[in-house]
Design brief:
By secondary structure, the chain is an alpha/beta fold. The protein folds into four domains: 9-54, Single Sheet (N-terminal domain of TfIIb); 70-143 and 348-457 and 478-519, Rossmann fold (3-Layer(aba) Sandwich); 145-342, Dimethylsulfoxide Reductase, domain 2 (3-Layer(aba) Sandwich), CATH 3.40.228; 580-690, Barwin-like endoglucanases (Beta Barrel). The protein binds iron/sulfur cluster (SF4). One of its GO terms (molecular function) is formate dehydrogenase (NAD+) activity.
């Protein structure tokens, strides 16, 4: 600040990286951001931040920003800068000719959890009301779609049960497949404070994350399981609870569907679900499983926090329901200190799901086949809606390779880097006749685009993000978008160019429409958010100032529903050719595919993806620290630098996916969650060997 001068103005807004949703004051001088200061009244962060958030503005003025719309006839042609009108005209002609020749189902849209609620809402409205298709999806497909499915089935709504501050009332914290100190650092610190005060900790993870042993915090139990074995482990925890009579009978009787509970009890007590039976499958000894289950069931207020290590599996949805079963069986739902809480990866992944950007659901998680719900939107939008669910991202790509899907509008998402089986994504994109990418930079997906529409950063627009605790935070504009338009304006322009009357003057008008049509948002408005700072949905007549803890007294669905969770092993197995299992995660200084953080000072801390390998696996392969290694799966091969580490167990490797040079997803597989098609990023059979070049 000393170099850049004393700030003249500050504007409170929300970090655009992870699902914690920290509030910041963006300090300005000469209309430029000179510093981001954590906002002490921010209800998600209470004045704290991490290194990502403090430097989050660094990429907004990066020379790689695209500042004019561009078009090209073929993806092998050079880009031509054009006016907005020329770009829209080009896109409209292609969309209309594809729609005329192949029908509405040849069109689709993908929105991003990086965009605001209002922008995401408009993308699904564009797809449904203007394109005439339910082919709309969000990047939640590749992260927390199993959370949506599992929690809605068990509890009745697709969201975490608690606010972050609830952890301060927890006596036992069960962290499964999450690494909060790296991926959700401000909440990770809040959790560590509670652990230092004496809360007990159980970590379920194939890797020794920081929380397992860090200054003044040590996990009581680290259940270091083999990748892909979450479901037998959670079943064995539940088996112990029932086998040893530790269940909360009163809670089950008063709050849950008792017939389904009886069926589940019979299932979970089967011998194959005992800790002794699953010890070989999971690699975790039976006594540790039993001890952890006793602690969770009897240690006081017990909360579950989980991440992508739960969802990104072929049984991701099963595991979410398994955790819900465990929480209901022990009565750990519906008050402070307990609950089942997804740590959402992206800033607005909760919001993008809330806003109806799934092919089967309208905003508020209401199924598209429900005529009453469709009627609300048909009246509001003045169109009739298709009652059949549309295609998910992987289905759109498959259909493109089969020649039946032709045009895709992608707002703020780089599917060619973030989605699995990149070669297949590339062949799908290259088969399309119209790919429209709306983004900040020429990302990997843009290499297959015909139209590029330059988007805006979070500092260049008004709107809202919803964080992992359902908190709707305001995003406020502090600078002009270099190409002159916020993302919501571009979507609106495209709708108008296609002949649909969309005329919002401001994102607050979009939120007013969301509130008019979505029961959990009826009490939300920009005025209220500005007055209260933020609110946690449901925010409506019954809860005018929001809802920090859900399912108090009753579940949203009425009674909690126990679901059977039989273990089905992943089809991806270690074998003679690929004897090791690779799993992936994040590091503190980088964010997802790194499009933003790689263009900030954060790259001073880390500038490449690193492969962690256990000493025993490294030694037999002649691998030492910093050795360049080729990692091959049956899908492809990539090159990384190795780090020999006991954080991973023998037979397991770990890396991140922040850098396109590595393209980690070249080697991940086509397997996916059975219910939602969330990719199985966390289990890939690989072999690794030293090599000489990157
Ligand atoms: Fe907060 Fe997450 Fe941003 Fe860090 S990255 S400042 S924890 S919202």
């Amino acid at each position: 600040v000393a170099e850049q001068g004393v700030p003249e103005e500050s504007v409170v807004t929300t970090c655009a990286y992870c699902g914690v949703g920290c509030s910041f004051q963006a300090e300005l001088k000469d209309d430029q951001v000179v510093r981001m200061v954590p906002y002490k009244y921010g209800k998600a962060n209470h004045g704290h931040s991490c290194v990502k958030g403090r430097f989050a503005w660094g990429y907004t003025n990066h020379p790689d920003r695209i500042t004019a719309p561009m078009i090209r006839d073929k993806v092998t042609d050079p880009w031509r800068e054009v006016t907005w009108e020329e770009a829209y005209d080009f896109a409209v002609k292609r969309i209309q000719s594809i729609s005329d020749a192949h029908g509405h189902s040849a069109l689709g849209a993908i929105t991003s959890s990086r965009c605001t609620n209002e922008e995401t809402y408009l993308v699904q409205k564009l797809a449904r009301a203007v394109f005439g298709t339910n082919n709309v999806d969000t990047c939640a497909r590749v992260c927390h779609s199993p959370t949506g499915y599992g929690l809605k089935t068990a509890f009745g709504t697709s969201a975490g049960t608690q606010g972050f501050d609830s952890v301060e009332a927890s006596d036992v914290i069960l962290v499964i497949g999450a690494n909060p100190t790296d991926a959700h650092p401000v909440f990770g610190s809040q959790m560590k404070r509670r652990l230092r005060e004496g809360a007990r900790l159980i970590v379920v993870d194939p890797r020794a994350i920081d929380l397992v042993r860090t200054p003044h915090v040590e996990a009581d139990y680290h259940l270091q399981l083999k990748p892909g074995t979450n479901v037998p482990l959670v079943n064995a925890l539940a088996h112990t609870v029932l086998d040893e009579g530790l269940e909360d009978e009163a809670f089950i009787k008063e709050r849950c569907e008792v017939d389904e509970y009886a069926e589940w009890k019979e299932f979970i007590l089967r011998p194959e679900n005992s800790p002794e039976a699953v010890a070989d499958i999971t690699g975790v000894d039976a006594e540790s499983i039993r001890a952890a289950a006793r602690l969770y069931a009897t240690g006081g207020e017990a909360a579950i926090y989980y991440g992508l290590g739960v969802t990104e599996h072929s049984q991701g949805s099963t595991m979410v329901m398994g955790m819900a079963n465990l929480a209901m069986a022990t009565g750990n739902i519906g008050r402070n200190g307990v609950g089942v809480n997804p740590l959402r990866g992206q800033n607005n992944v909760q919001g993008s799901c809330d806003m109806g950007s799934f092919p089967h659901e309208l905003p508020g998680y209401r199924h598209i086949s429900d005529p009453g719900v469709r009627d609300i939107y048909e009246k509001e939008w003045g169109v009739s809606l298709d009652s059949d669910p549309g295609m998910r991202i992987p289905n759109m790509i498959d259909a493109a390779t089969n020649g039946t899907f032709k045009a895709l509008y992608v707002q703020g998402e780089d599917i060619l880097q973030s989605d699995p089986n990149i070669k297949h994504i590339a062949s799908g994109l290259s088969a399309m006749e119209c790919v429209i990418v709306q983004d900040l930079f020429l990302n990997e997906t843009a290499s297959y685009a015909h139209v590029f529409l330059p988007g805006s950063t979070f500092l260049e627009k008004e709107g809202t993000f919803t964080n992992a605790e359902r908190r709707i935070n305001r995003v406020r504009k502090v600078a002009e978008p270099p190409a002159g338009k916020a993302d919501w304006e571009i979507t609106q322009d495209l709708a108008q160019a296609l002949g649909y009357p969309m005329n919002y003057s401001d994102p607050s008008g979009i939120m007013d429409e969301i509130a008019r049509t979505t029961p959990t948002f009826t009490g939300v408005s920009f005025d209220k958010l500005d007055r209260l700072g933020s609110v946690q949905w449901p925010c409506n007549e019954q809860h005018p100032e929001g809802t920090p803890v859900m399912h108090v007294g009753d579940f949203v669905r009425g009674r909690g529903k126990f679901m059977l969770t039989p273990y089905v092993a992943s089809d991806e197995r270690a074998n003679r050719k690929f004897p090791l299992l690779l799993t992936t995660g994040r590091i503190l200084s980088q964010y997802n595919v790194g499009a933003q953080t790689r263009r900030t000072g954060n790259s001073l801390w880390h500038s490449e993806d690193i492969l962690e390998i256990h000493p025993s696996d490294a030694e037999v392969r002649g691998i030492a620290d910093d050795t360049l290694v080729a990692v091959a799966s049956r899908m492809g091969e990539t090159t990384l630098r190795a780090k020999v580490s006991e954080r991973v167990m023998p037979g397991v490797l770990h890396t991140t996916f922040h850098f396109p040079e590595t393209a980690t997803n070249v080697i991940t597989t086509e397997y996916a969650d059975w219910a939602t098609e969330c990719p199985e990023y966390k289990v890939t059979a690989v072999e690794v060997r030293p090599c000489n070049t990157l």
